[in-house]
Amino acid sequence: MLNDPRSHGLWERTAPPAPPTGALRESTAADVVIVGGGYTGLAAALFLAEAGVRCVLLEAVEIGFGASGRNVGLINGGLWVMPDDVAGVLGAEHGERCLALLSDAPLLVRDVVERRGIACELERSGTLHLAVGGHGLEELRTRHRQWTARGAPLRLLDADETRRRTGSDAYAGALFDPRAGTLQPLAYARGLARAAMAENSGWPASSWSGRWQTMDLTGRAAMASRSSSVIWPETAYSSLIARISMGVVLSELLRSRLS
After folding, report:
1. What's the rounded mean pLDDT across residues 94-101?
2. Nearest CA to 83 among 153, 128, 127, 147?
3. Are 122 and 113 in contact (CB under 8 A)?
4. Burial bucket for residue 205 (CB in 10 Å: 0-12, 13-18, 19+)
5. DSSP letter string over 130-148?
6. How far apart are alpha carbons 120 and 113 in whole angstroms?
7. Of the residues 13, 24, 97, 183, which has the fewest C-beta atoms closer than 10 A?
8. What single DSSP character describes residue 19?
9. How far apart are CA 161 and CA 17, in angstroms?
10. How far apart are CA 240 and CA 199, in angstroms?
């Protein structure tokens, strides 16, 4: 990526080619503008397009350039924070909604991959969270109890079963999650982009409400994308200027709504 073989290594060498994209060279109207071509932005573009919403996605480098294209490829359900703690912080209603969404996330990824025919080396064999010693095993028991109370299909394995599955006697037990798996992360990002672009093709121009206008840092209006909504998936790869700009936009939006 960027003609540098060190940036994405094996993932780029084994991923299908990226879909053809180009710079935004003229003003365009859309219902939603999405800033960032990682999993969040690409999935938003695909789901919105499937719902008939016209989208424009703006990416500063290449599709999947950031963490989405260079992570380890695990598809995990839930959070590593204990479920009861999440509900304690966010409250019962929002905490349980958050946990339900994250618990079902691996199944959503599988569905998208299968339904859209994304070639990303999807594996559905589940994952093992391994316990070292008695303290680690007790933590897994607590996690198992809290998640199964919410309907998650987790299995707590003893030391013998863990040894059989891993070939190691270093672990006191394991928590097996059959929902989880792995995929080729850059291939998945590029597949999401290809699917979203296919869904977006052939749409008529949408009306412009005039609420948002995003443009490149040169400020050229000819490079603008006008929309009624903006999705800005913040990542560690956002430039300082982009973060400051978004902060100014949000501050002005909040001020206008309070005035």
Report:
1. 94
2. 147
3. yes
4. exposed
5. EE-HHHHHHHHHHHHHHHH
6. 8
7. 13
8. P
9. 41
10. 33
Structure tokens at 240: 């300082």
Sign for the pseudo-dihedral over CA of 184, 188, 191, 193: negative
Three-class secondary structure assignment of 192-242 = HHHHHHHHHCCCCCCCCCCCEEECCCCCCHHHCEEEEEEECCCCCCCCHHH
Q: What is the pLDDT of residues 137-178, one digit of tens each?
A: 999 999 999 999 999 999 999 999 999 999 999 999 999 999
In DSSP terms, which residues pair with 58 in a beta bridge?
35
CA dihedral 115, 117, 119, 125 (to 10 degrees): 40
d(CA 151, CA 129): 18
* Structure token pair of residue 90: 């966010």
Could you report the per-residue pLDDT of 211-252, keeping only the tens digit for each?
445 544 444 332 345 556 777 676 656 654 454 444 444 444
- Model pLDDT, residue 244: 46
State mean pLDDT over 36-65.
Answer: 89
